[in-house]
Q: What sequence folds into this?
């Protein structure tokens, strides 16, 4: 986990002192996130990003999801991210509904997952195009379903690609 945090933290240093984006990070904690990418569990890579973002951006909100979405208590974020266990399925529909309900028209929403499932077409159609530009999917070793082409997404197969996807997500902040 510390390796993941250090690796991602280097990329986030660029944003220190500049206009900090308001970020909501959605971390998939389904069972498949316990698998490894270059020797690091996918869940540790995502949690490392969460810890680095908390350190760099005051307004960061973190959500965990499997079949349900839950916001991580601000007072327990560090403990939660350090002890997170991957378990359960994946439900992206719930994530998109939460984003739509909670959006303040300023936040960039980054969703990290390795198992993007099918999503209700009515949910996709209900998300305004302006909001779609602020939703970014970072897909760790996942196939890209057709519906995802309506959003910004970065498929990654290496830690270096993960780092670049994080950087691109923040650089293109509106």
A:
């Amino acid at each position: 986990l510390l390796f993941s945090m250090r690796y991602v933290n280097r990329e986030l240093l660029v944003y220190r002192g500049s206009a900090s984006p308001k970020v909501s990070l959605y971390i998939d904690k389904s069972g498949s996130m316990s698998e490894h990418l270059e020797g690091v569990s996918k869940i540790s890579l995502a949690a490392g990003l969460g810890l680095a973002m908390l350190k760099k951006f005051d307004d960061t909100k973190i959500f965990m999801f499997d079949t349900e979405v839950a916001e991580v208590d601000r007072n327990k974020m560090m403990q939660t991210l350090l002890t997170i266990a991957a378990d359960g399925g994946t439900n992206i529909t719930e994530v998109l509904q939460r984003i739509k309900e909670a959006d303040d028209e300023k936040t960039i929403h980054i969703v990290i997952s390795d198992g993007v499932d099918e999503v209700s077409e009515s949910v996709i159609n209900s998300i305004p195009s302006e909001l779609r530009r602020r939703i970014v999917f970072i897909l760790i070793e996942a196939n890209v379903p057709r519906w995802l082409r309506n959003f910004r997404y970065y498929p990654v197969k290496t830690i270096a690609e993960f780092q670049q996807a994080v950087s691109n997500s923040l650089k293109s902040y509106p």
User: Anything to note?
Assistant: The first strand starts at residue 23 and ends at 28. Residues 63 and 72 are 6 Å apart (CA to CA).
